[in-house]
């Protein structure tokens, strides 16, 4: 009954994602800070992945994998929707890198601002789902599709080229963009150190901006490392299978389950790395109702003292 544990874990993770999304939505910076808004979209995408993964795991374990039936159609849909959620998650992470890159320029670049706008994100979300669901429709109409509930279904070469190669490209773009951002931050710091005509107020603002940028880069770095550890093992092993023709079903299941690392760790990164979310959680956890008793005890002596004062 290992799958029951996976389902329970996904349900708990979904609750954590919803809680983190609600907490982030209540922060004052969500409407003003684009980095927070992209993090909010990433949390929503990971939460959707949890629901899709639960549906797929339940369908695959309560039905016979080698028998045709309606559950096979469910598996086809879920096996395609889950990669769509992963691609959207990578898209959000890439947009966060582009946003940090744009912040390294003194004057924001119009192209980078457009690529990280709400319209571009919405179009990217739509394109990813159209791209993945197009193949899903073709698979539903085809009569020669292998049994999709089998875990080996998503290791076939056509599936790897359609889904895993774009994942690897996204991870590479994210890593390259992150390296460029770090290089630009270093270069900017050296330029500031060489300028001796700055006032004390300008130096304080520069240090504050640099500290905020460094803090956001550490948060983004944690997300990128988790994303790479979650996605690349499945992609690398899938490519190895198609080269060597040696398939180990246990390794396939393990690499498929590794995809849960990303939505598993991301909410905790936001909770511990973003100050506003951390303070919101602390406020909820340590909220007390001590105000009512104190007001009751303070009002009673006040009325008594006023009645004891002689009237003039």
Automatic annotation (TrEMBL):
Intracellular or extracellular location(s): Membrane
Transmembrane domains' residue ranges: 6-26, 38-58, 78-98, 110-134, 159-183, 215-237, 257-274
Location of the G-protein coupled receptors family 1 profile domain: 16-270
GO cellular component, one term: membrane
Coiled-coil residue windows: none
Stretches for region Disordered: 292-312
Keywords, comma-separated and alphabetical: Membrane, Transmembrane, Transmembrane helix
Domain of life where this protein originates: Eukaryota
Identification of the protein by name: G-protein coupled receptors family 1 profile domain-containing protein
Top-level taxonomy: Eukaryota, Metazoa, Spiralia, Lophotrochozoa, Mollusca
């Amino acid at each position: 009954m290992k799958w029951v544990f996976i389902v329970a874990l996904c349900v708990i993770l979904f609750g954590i994602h919803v809680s983190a999304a609600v907490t982030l939505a209540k922060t004052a910076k969500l409407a003003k800070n684009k980095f927070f808004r992209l993090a909010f979209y990433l949390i929503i995408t990971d939460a959707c992945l949890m629901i899709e993964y639960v549906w797929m795991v339940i369908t695959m374990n309560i039905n016979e994998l080698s028998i045709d039936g309606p559950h096979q159609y469910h598996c086809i849909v879920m096996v395609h929707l889950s990669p769509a959620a992963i691609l959207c998650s990578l898209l959000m992470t890439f947009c966060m890198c582009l946003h940090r890159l744009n912040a390294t320029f003194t004057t924001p670049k119009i192209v980078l601002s457009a690529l990280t706008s709400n319209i571009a994100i919405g179009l990217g979300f739509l394109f990813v789902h159209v791209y993945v669901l197009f193949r899903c429709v073709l698979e539903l109409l085809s009569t020669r599709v292998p049994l999709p509930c089998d875990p080996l279904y998503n290791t076939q070469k056509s599936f790897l080229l359609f889904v895993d190669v774009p994942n690897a490209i996204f991870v590479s773009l994210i890593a390259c963009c992150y390296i460029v951002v770090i290089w630009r931050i270093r270069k900017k710091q050296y330029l500031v150190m060489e300028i001796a005509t700055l006032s004390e107020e300008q130096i304080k603002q520069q240090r504050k901006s640099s500290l905020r940028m460094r803090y956001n880069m550490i948060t983004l770095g944690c997300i990128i490392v988790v994303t790479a550890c979650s996605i690349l093992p499945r992609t690398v092993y899938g490519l190895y299978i198609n080269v060597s023709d040696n398939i180990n079903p246990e390794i396939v299941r393990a690499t498929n389950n590794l995809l849960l690392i990303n939505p598993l760790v991301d909410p905790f990164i936001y909770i511990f790395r973003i100050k506003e979310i951390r303070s919101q959680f602390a406020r909820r956890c340590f909220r007390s109702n001590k105000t009512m008793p104190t007001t009751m005890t303070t009002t009673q002596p006040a009325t008594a003292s006023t009645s004891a004062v002689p009237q003039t």
